[in-house]
Amino acid sequence: MKILLVEDDPAIADSLRDGLTREGYQVTLARTGEAALAADSADVVLLDLGLPDLDGRAVCRRLREHSNVPIIVVTARSAEIDRVELLELGADDYLVKPFGFRELVARIRAVLRRAGSVDVPVTETTVGQLHIDHRAHEVTFRGSPVDLTPREFDLLAHLAADPGAVCSRDQVMHDVWDEHWWGSTKTLDVHLASLRKKLAPEVFETVRGVGIRLVADPK
Ligand code: CA
């Protein structure tokens, strides 16, 4: 699956490109509107509205003139977003910065599904007594449903993707919150404490000086 990433901010662009590449997507980066319009066709376009040369809205409209590619618009928090206008321009979905990386991946999968593309990767994860249904956003542990906030869900899903492996705090912040756009690692501690309470304390291990992990076989 090819993603055309249209983003002029180098920090955000690099972070997204690395993350999406790790997810298995083939990422082409365009740093200007003109570069985006000149790029090869992609399966999905991630379009920042604030570009140095052209207005992102104009880029969206011109892409739509010759392509049905799903377009996800990304806007800064401060920017005015007119949802109706975005839909009229042909955008399929939009995200407001700051957003979590998991949320972005979920949106990408959703627009690809709606577009009838075949990319529907992991839908369920089972690790020991823990079961995660990614599509329904549902978690069960020891046979009982667990009610999680979206961010707790993202954090759990991230750790469960590689059970037993220690994830550095920075990497988790980067993948689940995106360090460039979101606060301190205290946020991580708060969410982890909440997950421990809702599941069981022993499901997660803190490895001092290294990071955190989900145990390989939670019972
Ligand atoms: Ca920008």
What does this structure look like?
- The chain has 219 residues and is of the alpha/beta class.
- It has two domains: 2-115, Response regulator (Rossmann fold, 3-Layer(aba) Sandwich); 124-214, Winged helix-like DNA-binding domain superfamily/Winged helix DNA-binding domain (Arc Repressor Mutant, subunit A), CATH 1.10.10.10.
- It has eight helices and eleven strands.
- The protein has helices at residues 10-22, 33-38, 56-66, 83-89, 101-114, 150-160, 169-177, 186-198; strands at 2-6, 26-30, 44-48, 71-75, 93-96, 124-127, 130-133, 138-141, 144-146, 204-207, 211-214.
- The strands form three sheets. Strands 2-1-3-4-5 form a five-stranded parallel sheet, sandwiched between helices.
- The structure holds calcium ion.
- Calcium ion binds next to loops.
